[in-house]
Fold each of these.
Amino acid sequence: MQNQYSRRLAIIHWLTLILFIAAFYFGHELDETEQAAAKFGLYPYHFLLGDAVLVLTLLRAYFIRKDGKPAPIAGGSPLANKVSTGIHHLLYVLLIAVPASGMIMLNTTGLLVAFQSHDVSKMPDLEEFAIHEIHATLIFILIATIALHVLAALHHQFILKDGLMSRMSLFGKRD
Ligand code: HEM
Ligand code: HEM
């Protein structure tokens, strides 16, 4: 049985972290920006980065099927293994739901029409739509789940010292 994720799965994992932070940054900037014309310039970066996170998540699911993944770390209790698997599944669901809700917002609020006609005056007030709130709430839940995930990784690294982090390492020989 393998004891590491394949290199391409490790690359996808760390690339997702970087793209997620970048998508969040542009989403936050959009939220803070009042001027419609300035928002118009920022949107494409946010959409591209958010869509890239979705594509990477779908690729990750595909490569996990092909490459497999390591068995739960030795010595963990059955409950800890269940919680860990549950959090990983929740991360996958949210990594799909967050970009999907963003795309629904783009398509159902008239924002896409404003883009297609290059007309800033057609920009909808997104705050009026429930999907705006849904996107923000899903992001909040995703960030809380990532925080739990990172805390668990740090616990393994510094308290249990069981080498869990090396399973997601980009370097080293694969078996
Ligand atoms: C990992 C992926 C994504 C993250 C982390 C993310 C993050 C964010 C954040 C933090 C905001 C500000 C929320 C607020 O108003 O409180 C936002 C707003 C928004 N996002 Fe995303 N988003 C993602 C994907 C997408 C995608 C794929 C689309 C569409 C194709 C999208 C469309 C939007 C739109 C239209 C807004 C509203 C901006 C505004 O208030 O003018 N998002 N997003
Ligand atoms: C500094 C930040 C992070 C660290 C240190 C970290 C560390 C790890 C480690 C060590 C594993 C392997 C766990 C195991 O073998 O049981 C893992 C798996 C995973 N990580 Fe992260 N991670 C981080 C950020 C993220 C982010 C931002 C996401 C998603 C947005 C994410 C999503 C996942 C998923 C879905 C898995 C499970 C893969 C699977 O087995 O299906 N991680 N992470």
Amino acid sequence: MRRDFYQVSGREVDLFRQAYAQRVPVMLTGPTGCGKTRLVEYMGGVLNRPVVTISCHDDLTSSDLVGRYTVSGGDVVWHDGPLTRAVKEGAICYMDEVVEARHDSLAVLHSLTDHRRTLFLDRAGAVVEAPDAFMLVCSYNPAYRSSLKELKPSFRQRFVTVAMTYLPAELEVQVLVSESGVDRAAAQRLVKCASSIRNADDVLHFEPPSTRVLVTAAKLVAAGASELEAAEVSILAPLSNDGAITEGLRELAAASLLGANTTAPDRRVIAGGVKS
Ligand SMILES: Nc1ncnc2c1ncn2[C@@H]1O[C@H](COP(=O)(O)OP(=O)(O)OP(=O)(O)O)[C@@H](O)[C@H]1O
Ligand SMILES: [Mg+2]
């Protein structure tokens, strides 16, 4: 996979650079598959820093982040966790889906994300000052956020927040071509297909197809699949378990892929599909 290619669409790269230069942590928000992880990987290359990724979840403890003592061969040995390693290395530490982590686990980040830039390893009795090269980046998808999992304002306000979304059509076509090698005309049809579904999203209330699924569809097309089949298995099938909705979307997708006049998505197709 090409981690060095990132299609810029707004101010995100400049803001990331400026935040890095001023040692301010960055919070990326946006729907699944819109390019958050790719941006962090790309910026790792641009800034010449390794990226240490931590996937956050309910059971993640502060010890999982900073480290713990373990017994090995009769000795008690301290092992740095990934956060401590990232700080010591001066890496970009990327905490993915940070909203999934419990508040008490995130508390360890407070001293690291303000002017102190210091990690307190209470159990080891050690204090680690972050080198200038260290940067913390977190991300979450606002669509998955529940009131139970709100991030505290005291946490959120420590970050520069960069809100990401899907690329404009022409740039998304460019991503598909570059990531899959598919021809431009096919990429344009796939993007048009996704756009028509995204435009119908306000009546459907599910997370619309992402750039990720479009890249997958484009890869299948590049490998010889028909556009309709590629769209069916990559774009439509993951959207909804409701067969009736999928049926309506299939008509919408077919209209885009077969070149029918779909400049304005026909919401009656969806409504008809839901009812049938
Ligand atoms: N701006 C972009 N430039 C290049 N590729 C992109 C871009 N946006 C999305 N992609 C493509 O879409 C894929 C998914 O993007 P990425 O993994 O960064 O999504 P994400 O926002 O991190 O999603 P999730 O929240 O599910 O982790 C990438 O592997 C890449 O192929
Ligand atoms: Mg990601």
Amino acid sequence: MKGASFNTLEMKAPAAMKGMNFRIQVGIMDCLGCGNCVDVCPGNPKAGGKALEMKSLESQSKEAGNWDYCAKNVKSKQSLVDIQANVKNSQFATPLFEFSGACSGCGETPYVKLVSQLFGDRQMIANATGCTSIYSGSVPSTPYTKNENGEGPAWANSLFEDFCEFGLGMELANKKMVERIKAAMLKGQSCTCCSDELKGFCGMKS
Ligand code: SF4
């Protein structure tokens, strides 16, 4: 692989990924040094235990190029598995929340990332004010991002405890817009100026 220098493991499961290779690549320039991954990953006790250890940033400089290689060349594989079937499969889904400005080792952001993997660009977030609104709305940047189709979650923040009403408003507005689109499409069924091609495209042609 030109531009990359790393080891991978052969995929044995899920079946749809047999023949592929697996690697978890740390982005060293974004690592905050919390050590959570080292604490949590058990490694293989039969092969010496811990899989990870913290090392100085300088000693890991080649990993920056490996990260760039993976970010540029490795495409999402989420279409190969049912990402909602189990925890393992969910981690093949592309996260649409990444590189937040939360404190190092924040225990909340992995859950926010997981929700973005489960619901992707269908997610609408009515964010109460607090840590989540600060690290999610640090203008001009946001950790919410887009998938390969350029689509991502919709996010907005409302003041403190008002997020329930705020979220209800988003839901009602969404329903109203769907109803309006549906009504316009049904009206188009009897329209004499819409072409058959357009009616077919909108599922309106009988
Ligand atoms: S869990 Fe912490 S130490 Fe591990 S890569 Fe992420 S920020 Fe770095």
